[in-house]
Design a protein that fits this description.
With 339 residues, this protein is an alpha/beta fold. The chain has twelve helices and twelve strands.
Length: 339
Amino acid sequence: MKGKKPTIKDVAMRAEVSPTTVSMVLNGKHASIPQETQQRVRRAAEELNYCFDFMARALVTRKTNIIGVVIPDISNSFFSESVRHLQVELARRGYDIILCNSEEKVENDLHYIRLLAGRNVDGLILAPSAEALTEKYAGEVRSSLDDLGIPYLFLDRYYNDEDPKVVVDNVASSYRIAKYLLDCGHTKIGAISGPLTLNSSYNRLDGLKRALAEQGLSIPDEYIYEGKYDFETGRRGGEKLMKTDVTAIFAFSDMQAYGVYEIAKSLGKRIPNDISVVGFDDTFYSAVIDEPLTTMRQPVKEIAEEACRMILGLIGGEERERSLHLPAELIVRKSVKEL
Protein backbone atom coordinates (compact mmCIF):
# COMPACT_ATOMS: atom_id res chain seq x y z
CA MET A 1 0.00 0.00 0.00
CA LYS A 2 3.07 2.27 0.10
CA GLY A 3 2.50 5.45 -1.91
CA LYS A 4 -1.19 4.70 -2.40
CA LYS A 5 -4.03 6.12 -0.36
CA PRO A 6 -6.12 3.19 0.94
CA THR A 7 -9.72 3.06 -0.23
CA ILE A 8 -12.89 1.64 1.25
CA LYS A 9 -12.47 -1.33 -1.11
CA ASP A 10 -9.02 -2.04 0.36
CA VAL A 11 -10.53 -2.08 3.88
CA ALA A 12 -13.31 -4.38 2.66
CA MET A 13 -10.79 -6.83 1.15
CA ARG A 14 -8.67 -6.85 4.33
CA ALA A 15 -11.73 -7.39 6.55
CA GLU A 16 -13.30 -9.87 4.10
CA VAL A 17 -16.59 -8.00 3.94
CA SER A 18 -18.38 -5.88 1.36
CA PRO A 19 -17.63 -2.15 0.86
CA THR A 20 -21.24 -1.48 1.94
CA THR A 21 -20.56 -3.15 5.30
CA VAL A 22 -17.41 -1.06 5.76
CA SER A 23 -19.37 2.11 4.96
CA MET A 24 -22.10 1.22 7.45
CA VAL A 25 -19.62 0.50 10.24
CA LEU A 26 -17.58 3.66 9.69
CA ASN A 27 -20.73 5.79 9.38
CA GLY A 28 -22.08 4.51 12.69
CA LYS A 29 -24.99 2.68 11.04
CA HIS A 30 -23.98 -0.73 12.33
CA ALA A 31 -26.81 -1.75 14.66
CA SER A 32 -27.58 -4.87 12.60
CA ILE A 33 -23.94 -5.84 12.03
CA PRO A 34 -22.37 -8.46 14.37
CA GLN A 35 -19.91 -7.07 16.90
CA GLU A 36 -17.13 -9.34 15.63
CA THR A 37 -17.57 -8.00 12.10
CA GLN A 38 -17.50 -4.40 13.34
CA GLN A 39 -14.25 -5.04 15.20
CA ARG A 40 -12.73 -6.70 12.11
CA VAL A 41 -13.63 -3.69 9.94
CA ARG A 42 -12.19 -1.17 12.42
CA ARG A 43 -9.03 -3.24 12.85
CA ALA A 44 -8.56 -3.42 9.07
CA ALA A 45 -9.07 0.36 8.77
CA GLU A 46 -6.44 0.98 11.47
CA GLU A 47 -3.96 -1.44 9.92
CA LEU A 48 -4.28 0.26 6.54
CA ASN A 49 -4.28 3.75 8.12
CA TYR A 50 -7.53 4.41 6.27
CA CYS A 51 -8.88 7.97 6.51
CA PHE A 52 -12.61 8.32 6.06
CA ASP A 53 -13.55 10.72 3.25
CA PHE A 54 -15.93 13.03 5.07
CA MET A 55 -16.25 15.39 2.12
CA ALA A 56 -17.43 12.58 -0.14
CA ARG A 57 -20.03 11.62 2.44
CA ALA A 58 -21.11 15.24 2.78
CA LEU A 59 -21.70 15.50 -0.98
CA VAL A 60 -24.11 12.57 -0.74
CA THR A 61 -25.81 13.26 2.59
CA ARG A 62 -25.49 17.09 2.60
CA LYS A 63 -24.25 16.73 6.18
CA THR A 64 -20.74 16.95 7.60
CA ASN A 65 -21.60 15.85 11.16
CA ILE A 66 -19.49 18.77 12.37
CA ILE A 67 -20.61 21.48 14.78
CA GLY A 68 -18.77 24.79 14.89
CA VAL A 69 -18.12 26.18 18.38
CA VAL A 70 -17.02 29.78 18.93
CA ILE A 71 -16.06 30.89 22.45
CA PRO A 72 -14.61 34.21 23.64
CA ASP A 73 -11.81 33.03 25.94
CA ILE A 74 -10.45 29.48 26.19
CA SER A 75 -8.51 30.45 29.35
CA ASN A 76 -11.84 31.11 31.13
CA SER A 77 -12.52 27.92 33.07
CA PHE A 78 -16.26 28.05 32.36
CA PHE A 79 -15.71 27.99 28.60
CA SER A 80 -12.88 25.44 28.61
CA GLU A 81 -14.95 23.10 30.76
CA SER A 82 -18.01 23.69 28.57
CA VAL A 83 -16.05 22.77 25.45
CA ARG A 84 -14.81 19.56 27.07
CA HIS A 85 -18.36 18.45 27.83
CA LEU A 86 -19.62 19.61 24.43
CA GLN A 87 -17.01 17.53 22.65
CA VAL A 88 -17.75 14.42 24.70
CA GLU A 89 -21.52 14.71 24.29
CA LEU A 90 -21.43 15.47 20.56
CA ALA A 91 -18.97 12.61 19.92
CA ARG A 92 -21.40 10.28 21.66
CA ARG A 93 -23.99 11.33 19.09
CA GLY A 94 -21.65 10.92 16.12
CA TYR A 95 -20.56 14.55 15.71
CA ASP A 96 -17.17 16.28 15.80
CA ILE A 97 -16.45 19.93 16.58
CA ILE A 98 -14.31 22.70 15.15
CA LEU A 99 -13.35 25.03 18.00
CA CYS A 100 -12.60 28.74 17.50
CA ASN A 101 -11.45 31.20 20.18
CA SER A 102 -12.44 34.82 19.44
CA GLU A 103 -10.24 36.36 22.17
CA GLU A 104 -13.16 38.71 22.98
CA LYS A 105 -12.86 40.45 19.59
CA VAL A 106 -15.85 41.00 17.31
CA GLU A 107 -13.69 40.84 14.17
CA ASN A 108 -12.77 37.28 15.17
CA ASP A 109 -16.43 36.40 15.83
CA LEU A 110 -17.33 37.49 12.30
CA HIS A 111 -14.30 35.78 10.76
CA TYR A 112 -14.95 32.45 12.46
CA ILE A 113 -18.69 32.48 11.72
CA ARG A 114 -17.89 32.83 8.00
CA LEU A 115 -15.03 30.35 8.20
CA LEU A 116 -17.22 27.68 9.79
CA ALA A 117 -20.00 28.33 7.29
CA GLY A 118 -17.44 27.81 4.52
CA ARG A 119 -16.53 24.46 6.10
CA ASN A 120 -20.22 23.49 5.80
CA VAL A 121 -20.74 22.81 9.49
CA ASP A 122 -24.18 21.48 10.30
CA GLY A 123 -24.71 23.95 13.15
CA LEU A 124 -23.10 26.64 15.30
CA ILE A 125 -22.82 27.03 19.07
CA LEU A 126 -21.73 30.56 19.83
CA ALA A 127 -20.72 32.55 22.91
CA PRO A 128 -20.21 36.05 21.45
CA SER A 129 -17.38 38.29 22.53
CA ALA A 130 -18.16 41.18 24.87
CA GLU A 131 -17.47 43.51 21.94
CA ALA A 132 -19.98 41.67 19.72
CA LEU A 133 -22.73 42.29 22.26
CA THR A 134 -22.36 46.07 22.19
CA GLU A 135 -24.95 48.15 20.34
CA LYS A 136 -22.29 49.12 17.79
CA TYR A 137 -21.73 45.57 16.52
CA ALA A 138 -24.79 43.55 17.56
CA GLY A 139 -26.67 44.12 14.30
CA GLU A 140 -23.72 43.06 12.15
CA VAL A 141 -23.17 39.83 14.06
CA ARG A 142 -26.87 38.92 14.06
CA SER A 143 -27.14 39.63 10.33
CA SER A 144 -24.10 37.48 9.65
CA LEU A 145 -25.65 34.56 11.52
CA ASP A 146 -29.10 34.91 9.96
CA ASP A 147 -27.84 35.40 6.40
CA LEU A 148 -25.88 32.13 6.42
CA GLY A 149 -28.96 30.02 7.09
CA ILE A 150 -27.15 27.66 9.48
CA PRO A 151 -28.92 26.51 12.67
CA TYR A 152 -27.31 28.17 15.67
CA LEU A 153 -27.75 28.72 19.36
CA PHE A 154 -26.09 30.84 22.01
CA LEU A 155 -24.18 29.48 24.98
CA ASP A 156 -23.99 31.61 28.16
CA ARG A 157 -24.17 34.92 26.24
CA TYR A 158 -27.02 36.09 24.02
CA TYR A 159 -28.78 39.12 22.55
CA ASN A 160 -32.44 38.89 23.53
CA ASP A 161 -34.98 36.61 25.17
CA GLU A 162 -36.14 35.18 21.84
CA ASP A 163 -32.67 33.84 20.96
CA PRO A 164 -32.17 30.05 20.96
CA LYS A 165 -29.89 29.65 23.96
CA VAL A 166 -28.75 27.63 26.95
CA VAL A 167 -27.61 29.72 29.92
CA VAL A 168 -27.43 29.68 33.69
CA ASP A 169 -30.19 31.62 35.43
CA ASN A 170 -27.94 34.49 36.49
CA VAL A 171 -30.64 36.64 38.08
CA ALA A 172 -32.00 33.91 40.36
CA SER A 173 -28.51 32.56 41.14
CA SER A 174 -27.11 35.98 42.03
CA TYR A 175 -30.20 36.75 44.11
CA ARG A 176 -29.67 33.55 46.08
CA ILE A 177 -26.04 34.22 47.03
CA ALA A 178 -26.83 37.87 47.80
CA LYS A 179 -29.66 36.70 50.04
CA TYR A 180 -27.16 34.43 51.81
CA LEU A 181 -24.90 37.42 52.50
CA LEU A 182 -27.85 39.41 53.81
CA ASP A 183 -28.89 36.53 56.05
CA CYS A 184 -25.35 36.55 57.45
CA GLY A 185 -25.84 40.20 58.42
CA HIS A 186 -24.07 41.93 55.52
CA THR A 187 -25.92 44.99 54.27
CA LYS A 188 -22.95 46.81 52.72
CA ILE A 189 -22.07 44.55 49.79
CA GLY A 190 -19.62 45.51 47.04
CA ALA A 191 -19.76 43.99 43.56
CA ILE A 192 -16.98 43.18 41.09
CA SER A 193 -18.59 42.59 37.69
CA GLY A 194 -17.53 41.57 34.23
CA PRO A 195 -18.32 43.87 31.27
CA LEU A 196 -21.85 45.16 31.80
CA THR A 197 -22.58 44.66 28.09
CA LEU A 198 -22.73 40.93 28.94
CA ASN A 199 -26.06 39.52 30.06
CA SER A 200 -24.23 37.42 32.68
CA SER A 201 -22.85 40.60 34.27
CA TYR A 202 -25.93 42.80 34.24
CA ASN A 203 -28.18 39.90 35.25
CA ARG A 204 -25.96 39.07 38.24
CA LEU A 205 -26.00 42.73 39.22
CA ASP A 206 -29.77 42.71 38.84
CA GLY A 207 -30.09 39.69 41.15
CA LEU A 208 -27.95 41.45 43.76
CA LYS A 209 -30.04 44.63 43.51
CA ARG A 210 -33.28 42.67 43.87
CA ALA A 211 -32.09 40.97 47.05
CA LEU A 212 -31.02 44.33 48.51
CA ALA A 213 -34.27 46.03 47.49
CA GLU A 214 -36.29 43.45 49.42
CA GLN A 215 -34.52 44.69 52.54
CA GLY A 216 -35.07 48.35 51.62
CA LEU A 217 -31.43 48.68 50.57
CA SER A 218 -29.58 49.74 47.42
CA ILE A 219 -26.03 49.53 46.10
CA PRO A 220 -24.17 52.85 45.65
CA ASP A 221 -22.14 53.37 42.47
CA GLU A 222 -18.92 53.39 44.50
CA TYR A 223 -19.68 49.82 45.59
CA ILE A 224 -19.53 48.56 41.97
CA TYR A 225 -16.32 47.85 40.07
CA GLU A 226 -16.65 46.85 36.41
CA GLY A 227 -13.88 44.96 34.62
CA LYS A 228 -13.24 41.56 33.10
CA TYR A 229 -13.82 38.08 34.46
CA ASP A 230 -10.16 37.76 35.40
CA PHE A 231 -7.72 37.78 38.31
CA GLU A 232 -6.44 41.32 37.75
CA THR A 233 -9.97 42.77 37.79
CA GLY A 234 -10.53 41.04 41.13
CA ARG A 235 -7.31 42.45 42.46
CA ARG A 236 -8.05 46.03 41.37
CA GLY A 237 -11.71 45.86 42.30
CA GLY A 238 -10.90 44.40 45.68
CA GLU A 239 -8.39 47.17 46.39
CA LYS A 240 -10.95 49.84 45.47
CA LEU A 241 -13.81 48.31 47.45
CA MET A 242 -11.72 47.72 50.56
CA LYS A 243 -11.22 51.49 50.74
CA THR A 244 -14.97 51.84 51.29
CA ASP A 245 -17.00 50.53 54.23
CA VAL A 246 -18.24 47.32 52.54
CA THR A 247 -18.18 44.24 54.76
CA ALA A 248 -18.57 41.74 51.89
CA ILE A 249 -17.53 41.55 48.25
CA PHE A 250 -19.49 39.63 45.63
CA ALA A 251 -17.08 38.76 42.80
CA PHE A 252 -19.00 37.75 39.68
CA SER A 253 -16.45 35.00 38.93
CA ASP A 254 -14.21 32.81 41.07
CA MET A 255 -11.15 34.09 39.19
CA GLN A 256 -12.02 37.63 40.30
CA ALA A 257 -12.47 36.33 43.86
CA TYR A 258 -8.93 34.91 43.78
CA GLY A 259 -7.70 38.40 42.90
CA VAL A 260 -9.59 39.76 45.94
CA TYR A 261 -7.90 37.14 48.12
CA GLU A 262 -4.48 38.17 46.85
CA ILE A 263 -4.94 41.92 47.39
CA ALA A 264 -6.54 41.34 50.80
CA LYS A 265 -3.47 39.38 51.88
CA SER A 266 -1.12 42.10 50.61
CA LEU A 267 -3.13 44.71 52.56
CA GLY A 268 -2.97 42.65 55.73
CA LYS A 269 -6.69 41.86 55.72
CA ARG A 270 -8.00 38.43 56.67
CA ILE A 271 -10.82 36.55 54.96
CA PRO A 272 -13.46 36.34 56.36
CA ASN A 273 -12.58 38.13 59.62
CA ASP A 274 -11.90 41.50 57.99
CA ILE A 275 -13.74 41.12 54.68
CA SER A 276 -16.14 38.43 53.44
CA VAL A 277 -15.92 37.25 49.83
CA VAL A 278 -18.18 35.19 47.57
CA GLY A 279 -17.71 34.14 43.95
CA PHE A 280 -19.52 32.58 41.02
CA ASP A 281 -18.47 29.42 39.10
CA ASP A 282 -17.05 26.96 41.67
CA THR A 283 -13.84 26.11 39.85
CA PHE A 284 -11.51 23.48 41.33
CA TYR A 285 -9.34 25.86 43.36
CA SER A 286 -12.28 27.37 45.23
CA ALA A 287 -12.48 24.30 47.46
CA VAL A 288 -8.74 24.03 48.21
CA ILE A 289 -7.51 27.60 48.74
CA ASP A 290 -6.94 28.97 52.24
CA GLU A 291 -10.40 29.89 53.54
CA PRO A 292 -12.33 27.94 50.87
CA LEU A 293 -14.62 30.14 48.79
CA THR A 294 -18.40 30.32 49.11
CA THR A 295 -19.69 30.49 45.56
CA MET A 296 -22.38 29.54 43.05
CA ARG A 297 -21.66 26.30 41.19
CA GLN A 298 -22.55 26.61 37.51
CA PRO A 299 -24.10 23.43 36.02
CA VAL A 300 -21.51 23.31 33.22
CA LYS A 301 -22.07 19.68 32.26
CA GLU A 302 -25.84 20.11 32.13
CA ILE A 303 -25.49 23.32 30.09
CA ALA A 304 -23.29 21.50 27.55
CA GLU A 305 -25.61 18.49 27.38
CA GLU A 306 -28.66 20.69 26.80
CA ALA A 307 -26.78 22.73 24.17
CA CYS A 308 -25.96 19.52 22.28
CA ARG A 309 -29.55 18.31 22.48
CA MET A 310 -30.90 21.66 21.34
CA ILE A 311 -28.52 22.25 18.40
CA LEU A 312 -29.18 18.74 17.06
CA GLY A 313 -32.89 19.37 17.43
CA LEU A 314 -32.57 22.62 15.47
CA ILE A 315 -30.55 20.84 12.77
CA GLY A 316 -33.19 18.14 12.53
CA GLY A 317 -36.01 20.67 12.36
CA GLU A 318 -37.58 19.39 15.56
CA GLU A 319 -39.87 21.62 17.57
CA ARG A 320 -38.27 21.91 21.00
CA GLU A 321 -37.86 24.59 23.61
CA ARG A 322 -35.56 27.31 22.28
CA SER A 323 -34.48 28.88 25.57
CA LEU A 324 -33.23 27.20 28.72
CA HIS A 325 -32.20 28.93 31.97
CA LEU A 326 -30.59 26.42 34.34
CA PRO A 327 -30.16 27.08 38.09
CA ALA A 328 -26.78 27.32 39.78
CA GLU A 329 -26.14 25.75 43.21
CA LEU A 330 -25.08 27.67 46.31
CA ILE A 331 -21.91 26.13 47.77
CA VAL A 332 -21.28 27.41 51.31
CA ARG A 333 -17.70 27.24 52.56
CA LYS A 334 -15.66 29.46 54.90
CA SER A 335 -15.21 32.83 53.20
CA VAL A 336 -18.20 34.60 54.79
CA LYS A 337 -18.35 35.84 58.37
CA GLU A 338 -21.65 36.07 60.22
CA LEU A 339 -22.02 39.54 61.68
